[in-house]
Write a structure and sequence with these properties.
With 258 residues, this protein is α+β, with helices and mostly antiparallel strands. It is globular and about 55 Å long. The protein contains 6 helices and 10 strands, in the order ααβαβββββααβαβββ. α1 runs antiparallel to α2.
């Protein structure tokens, strides 16, 4: 009779080692996520009108932490969790940070609010590619014309083409939606001392205004060079966190309920 105890001990040792490795990976992943989240708190605490405090040291720190997050993953990112609404917490990309400079223009009444990306669920197109819709959304206010908070919504509509752990974004149209006028604007457009019918019609048209303009010719979207310009590497995505990298910098998002 041959004892199987050595085999059992070996199996138990391998299982224990595997569990330790999984716990180490989970801990490293959680630590990297928390560190990136802490950066968000640090940045937002220093946020001033017209300024988004991304210094060279913060940008380097974000790059280092993103690499740690990437190293802590045991597999490539599964993009099944990508669809949904994501609120931008911060970015190191200068082209996006430049949006906030409009608040610094002389006598500028513009106030930049929250920035979002909304990904639709992708499906196979005629070329066998996974393709979905994506909206880039900027909430802003232009007091006293609009309400002080989210009085105006600027939207850039695009398509995205999904790769293994990246998306290529092809921008299509840009426009203004959901204009919410202030009480002062309502008074000026439809003052109570003037005939109300035409004024109220004008106000209704103003409140429901939606202006959209094309950004590119539809034929351009099919070209690989055009898509490459909007490539976004998905470093990490789960139920509540999205970390991505473009040529211009890093992006840290939090999922928001719709």
């Amino acid at each position: 009779h041959t004892s199987n105890r050595p085999c059992m001990r070996l199996h138990s040792t391998v299982e224990a080692a595997t569990n330790v490795d999984e716990e180490t990976t989970t801990d490293a992943l959680a630590a990297a996520k928390k560190a990136l989240d802490d950066v968000a708190g640090e940045i937002l605490a220093k946020r001033e009108r017209g300024k988004f405090p991304i210094t060279g040291s913060i940008a380097s720190k974000v790059k280092e932490l993103t690499q740690k997050l990437k190293d802590a993953k045991d597999t490539s990112s599964s993009l099944t969790k990508l669809p949904g609404l994501w609120r931008l917490e911060y970015t190191t990309a200068p082209d996006v940070l430049s949006i906030f400079t409009v608040e610094q223009l002389p006598f500028s009444p513009i106030q930049i609010g929250k920035i979002y990306q909304r990904y639709g669920t992708p499906s196979l197109n005629d070329n066998g590619e996974l393709q979905g819709s994506v909206e880039n959304i900027v909430k802003l206010a232009v007091p006293p014309i609009t309400e002080d908070k989210d009085g105006l919504t600027f939207v850039v509509n695009a398509r995205y083409f999904q790769g293994k752990d990246d998306v290529s974004i092809a921008f299509e149209t840009a426009g203004v939606e959901k204009l919410r006028v202030s009480a002062l604007t309502e008074f000026l457009v439809a003052p109570p001392i003037l005939p109300r019918l035409d004024s109220l019609r004008a106000l209704a048209r103003l409140s429901g205004a939606s202006i959209r303009v094309p950004l590119v010719a539809p034929s351009s979207i099919a070209t690989s060079a055009f898509r490459a310009a909007g490539k976004l590497d998905i470093t990490y995505v789960d139920d509540d966190t999205l970390v991505a990298e473009a040529l211009s910098g890093f992006f840290f998002f939090r999922r928001e309920a719709e």
